[in-house]
Amino acid sequence: MHDLMLITDDLRHAERLAKAMGRAETCGIHDLYEERVPPEHPALIVSDIKELTSDALVRLRRCLEAMRGQGVPHLLLVHGNAARAEVQARLLGAEAIPAATAARVLSDRLRQAARSTTTPAGVGIRAARQAQEARDFLTQAFFSGAAMTPDIAEAGTELVAQAVHEAGIRDWVRAVQRFDDTTHQHILLVAGLSSAFGLALGLNPRDRHHLAKAALLHDVGKTKIPPAILNKPGRLNPVELQIMRTHPALGHAMLAGAKFDGATLAVVRWHHEMLDGSGYPDGLRGEQIPDLVRLVTVTDIYGALIERRPYKKALSETAALAIIGEMVGRLDGDLVRAFRPVAGAFDAAATGGTPAGTAGGTA
Ligand SMILES: [Fe+2]
Ligand SMILES: [Fe+2]
Question: What is the pTM of this model?
């Protein structure tokens, strides 16, 4: 068994790299085009692939599925187009590093991996890194002022869904709860919880992806809310609350002209609607609220309850479940019950505190 595995399409290059690290004898090297994937579970996987064709990516994913355990880092060496490699690395849950500095970086990483596979806070390294990547993605895609497009949303959804799939919802939630930025934390929590909820409901991959994408976008309108209100370290006053409550319609207007599908638009506009008609912005009732919207409303409120905010601690799983349980009638009771196993997959690492901004309408 090897602690480092190089997956390569150029055996000679990989051998030179192993030698440069002083690992000629102890580093495993796997030929990407070898059909049999060795039964290895290394502490660090490095992809050294010069030609990242679609066939190479399919083969690489197969290798990773077989070899990569939870929390195991994956580094993708960048040989050519850095921007493209960066995108591929994100989709593969990898970190892109320049091939030229690979020997030094890899030596450092091996020392780190040998020390621990978890961070001091008990969050898997992989989940922490993937959450960080997703936060960087949000900063660029949501908060840079650039227009949101279906392609960008697809890439972000893939990033979150893969992270939840690989790291598990428990590690994802813990990694995201460490973020100080309330909106980033909220969006990534709701997207991750929705992805896990879709899996628990037995949705097919297409519907699951659709749900996660709608969840990722649900609060996109908040990017148009003044930062002083959005990031206020306390409860909103009535005027601020009124402004905050414009975010569903703002988000809907942002996406309506950008070729997003109707079901996603409905989630963005109606995720604060309640079955009893007490929600906003359109005061819909019962059957007027589509299923996809109801799903995201449950994860949205639960996510807000377990978030850590400057003025409140994260609520425990039990306390948050009790609150959404009391909201049945406004929320879909079947969905609240179906959500329990998802929430039961982790404890929100909470120590109590007052309920989140849900009551104040900031979910
Ligand atoms: Fe919202
Ligand atoms: Fe929300």
Answer: 0.65
